[in-house]
Amino acid sequence: MRMAFSGGSLKGTVSSPPSKSHTHRAFFLSSMADGDSRITNCLISDDTLSTLGATESIGAAVQRRGDEVLISGGKLHAPKGTVDAGNSGTTLRIFSGIASMFDEWVTVTGDDSLRKRPMGPLLEALGRMGVECRSDGGNPPVEIRGSNKGGKVAIEGGVSSQFITSLLITSPMLANDVEIEIEGKTVSEPYLDVTTHIMRLFGADVVKEKNIFRVKGGTGYRPYDYAVPADFSSAAFPLVAGALGGEVTVKGLQMDDPQGDRVIIDILKDAGASVSIAGDSVTVKKRDLKAQEIDIGKCPDLFPVLAVLLSTAEGTSRLYGAPQLRFKESDRIRTTADMLKAIGADAEGTDDGCVIRGKKKLAGGVVNNEGDHRIMMAAAVASLLCERPVVMEEAECCSVSYPEFPEHMRSLGMKVEEKDP
């Protein structure tokens, strides 16, 4: 779908979408819990539907009622055929760990983009746990055969926290206790806090001591009725839109949630935006912004929209600390820099982020989002700074995490048009 975003003067209120990361984890844990779980306020998106399909492939019974999903789990078996994770790296990686429980070969694949995502560290860790693994040079499709019995394993933490989450989530289902030692720096560490928080709600015994996680094996999971919180990584797009184009309120945010992307609130304040919090609502108003230096190692999903936020801030900004951005739905360091340059910003990628020299106004133009939902939404928000519209193909890719995004922007006052090819 070809769409044009033409900025505008924004004012209004939207509800943040539910958390994608929480939804994935709740679906998987419910499928392994022996009994019925009710997951409310789910994010129903392309990625989370991939996870639901994966849970059904191992025996979960799923009923959807709007944004409520009932999952009857516990009757697990190996999938009968190949499991397609679509574009969802979270589905691919968590499910690969779960697949190691079975003593039959399980094949997991995805779309063209997903087949470029690295899997080596996870497959190597599973191999050290006695699991047979085959792959396309460390990339999907992957083939896995257990059965995984648990024990001690080391895994590098510098590529993706999803590898560690995969091992953690699988561990209570294994016969023996599991000790996971993280080697080196752990990227996107707050996502592991989300993982262990939800695991405990579903009955797991998991503790962390420095760089080691210990999980009690043989316990499985118990059913749990779980309400998915709002997603700060998605809320960042309308919040930044408020900072650049008017006054926007996002409601439904839980300020004590362990999501690392909650830091967007502090970043907006530090950059000079007007930010006020009332209960579960955050209101951001436009003000002149100043350059920032931000370590995004713990909040890499914010990178594209933060680059947009700072593209007209006075001075030179630097986003750093997230080399793992090279291995997302796109090479997000390259695609973010390319997106900004396409609309007239002064930005260049670095090994672990980018440098942005603020300009008073951007030109607009045609952006290639490469089917990456966060690049698409960041470019749409950037239209608030542009003299001409920002035009993109594949605008529907936002359905991966924020299906209502175009309509939310339109409701706030942005001009959003579908264009003929």
What would you say this structure looks like, in words?
The protein has 421 residues and is of the alpha/beta class. Helix content is 30%, strand content 26%. The protein contains 12 helices and 24 strands. The chain has helices at 20-32, 46-57, 89-99, 120-128, 161-170, 190-201, 232-245, 264-271, 303-309, 332-342, 373-382, 405-412, and strands spanning 2-5, 10-15, 35-40, 61-65, 68-73, 83-84, 106-109, 132-136, 139-145, 151-156, 178-183, 206-209, 212-215, 226-227, 246-251, 274-278, 281-285, 293-295, 316-320, 346-349, 354-357, 365-367, 390-392, 416-419. It is globular, with a radius of gyration of 21 Å. The N and C termini lie close together (8 Å).
List the helices and strands and how they pair.
Layout: E1 2-5, E2 10-15, H1 20-32, E3 35-40, H2 46-57, E4 61-65, E5 68-73, E6 83-84, H3 89-99, E7 106-109, H4 120-128, E8 132-136, E9 139-145, E10 151-156, H5 161-170, E11 178-183, H6 190-201, E12 206-209, E13 212-215, E14 226-227, H7 232-245, E15 246-251, H8 264-271, E16 274-278, E17 281-285, E18 293-295, H9 303-309, E19 316-320, H10 332-342, E20 346-349, E21 354-357, E22 365-367, H11 373-382, E23 390-392, H12 405-412, E24 416-419
Parallel strand pairs: 2-15, 3-14, 6-7, 10-11, 18-19, 22-23
Antiparallel strand pairs: 1-23, 1-24, 3-5, 4-5, 7-9, 8-9, 11-13, 12-13, 15-17, 16-17, 19-21, 20-21
